[in-house]
User: What shape does this take?
Amino acid sequence: MSTEFNDSQHYGFFMNGTTLTSATGFFLRQSELTLAALRAAGFLDNMEDGTVPPADLSKLWLDKNSDPAILKEWNPIGAAWEKVTSQTLFGRVPWRGEWGSSSIYRKGDVVGYNGDVWIAIQASQNHAPAEDAFWDLFLESAAANSVGTTALQDGAVTNAKLADMATSRIKGRTSSGTGDPEDLTAEQVRALLNLGYVAPLKAFGAVGNGVTNDTAAVTAAQASGSIISGEGLTYKVDAVPDLAKFSRAAFKVGSIIHVTRDFLRTDTAKVTNGMLYTAWAQDKCYRMRNEIRVWVNEKESHGDGTGRIALYFSNDGGSTFSFGEYLSAKASGQTLWSAGFDGTNEYLFVRVPAGSTDVPPYTYTLWKRALGTGDTSNYNGAWTKTNITFPTPSGFTGQPVMVHSFTVGHSGSIVVGASYGEGAAAMRSTDGGINWTGHILGSGSSFEEPTIRYDSASGVYCGFLRNGGGGNPRYWVSTDNLATINFWTAASGFFGPNALSSATVSFDIKDGVIHAVTAYRNGVLEGLGTDERASAFYLRGPITTGSFWDQVEAFNLGQLPRREPGGASALGQGSVVVDEDKVHLFYGMEERTGVSGGVGKGNRIANIYQTVVFLRDRGSLFDTRSDIVANRTSNSQLRKVAGIDAFMFPFNDANNWGPTLVSGRPNFVRHVSTLSIASGVLTLTGTRAGLYVIDTEGAAAADDLDTITDADVFDGDTIVLKTSSSSRDVTVKNGTGNINCGADRVLNSASDQIMLVHFGGSWFAFPYADNT
Assistant: This one.
């Protein structure tokens, strides 16, 4: 059987169809039939047959130049077609044993040579294995009990086969040049990848209790080049380090704490943004129900007699604030220095100068209104104005120069602070602000501008006094309802080398903790050698019947810009409102200075800023108690009217019929009601309409109009008057009262009207039409 297919004697008989004829019956050599079957099955798909060899030398050739045909393959060494054996066809094994110079090696053959294992990458004969174009090292010799990596297959080496490593190491290389891998430490890896290394400051020997001097440890940590975590602790040092090199760390230099940005969670924004000198939010900001109210004065300087009192409020936890609301549209020398809410009524203490400018002597007017409760709350209700007189304490003269601060005192009373030229006092009223009792807080010209709060939980009154004598501020306390006052002055050097003189300290109380804000009045007083900037501070400490300065945390807020040479009453003098989980610090910043008064109006710009210190994080995406939201609104009160080129200011109160339209066409908005004449007088006070429908007194057939009164009128105001009925005639009298219309004008038809413009206390007619 060994020669079964090796000669020409093995044939098979085949028939095509069902009938045997000379055309359907034929013989076929069985060896060729087998090869044909293998090729049909795809096993020899690289075989070509014929009398001419294939051009592709990688294919097999069934040479039919002989009978039987011979299956051949190309020998690249001998450059000839050679007969294929059964071993080369079906049983070729890559391992060819030890290399021999006479053997022919094809691509893929594997041989042994000098203890190594090599694989052929192209055909060769008498070419010893070496790293070249013919051979590739497959496995190095195992004589050294190691495995070479030059030609290792993927996954050939497991972790278990690597050299042992120490704990917390990683393979890499930090040595210069090319070389073996090294076992690197975590610090080496961070340095190699240029990653910041966050190391605890305590690792450098720091204590972090705010008492032990950690200067050496902090200096070493800063020099390490790594980012150092303070782990939320306070470190006493001799000088402020580079805060950018640290995280979650506070550094106490003297009494002042300087913090990294992530030590206290804070947010700072502008509350106002007008081209005006908007300032003096000093101790007249408060929470009224869920609303934060910030009162300010808009004026060029202390003595400016053309100022206005304005209100800004927030109903979303201090995230956004309203446009300004004037207490009175008319500019005057009146200013606001104290305001508050007792749970039912809102109080404003307006300082009224004797003359046209804001200089002493002063009197005071109490503006008061009831808010109401729940759905009946009226935030725009009418004010009741009462002139009040504060008592003059013994040794003091006249009325206070300023009335500061507001608190609800014991037994439901209200208490304010009063500053005189001779000292400071607390004023207490038990009848809603009509009558007052004075309690001296400190006598002497250095006792100024007191701030005051009553803590009902402890029954303690406490506050701060501005030191006008060149020293630091004072903390005062009373445990017997203002009968006895004790005070402590912040030690020399507490805020810095120079005293924080003539600076108020405004504050609020939350759960027995005082939260306060203050600032140097200017950089020269601070000792910076320039007026451009001055430091501000956030103070936090417990209500105490001893020295507050021994227990307070005094954080440096940073440098506030100021532009007014030699003054800066607006700078930093602010208010504090604790609203649930947030402490709101309100203070002024000067942004531009220039000529004041007259044509210089608008040269000087200051605005109110708000820094929020978050007391806790409730761990939610957003919670109004502990978060604030970014404002993406326009804050504009203008509304576009669809379909026409016009805008409007919306009003929905009872005083106006509809919104004020702004377009190329003048629009005189009609007053909501028909107004009647009373004894020849038409009263427009409290209204700002442009068109008034008027009626006779008692619906009489005829009436005279002599005078038009309007406490809120401005020169240039223009109004249109028309009668309500053709059956009731109104005669507008010329020169009888404050109306000048050339001659008496009779409005005896519902179509009649007269237009008047106000100037200098009188109304002047300029068009008149008799449209009967």
Summary: Residues 1-7 have pLDDT under 50 and may be disordered. The first helix runs from residue 30 to 40. The first strand starts at residue 11 and ends at 15.
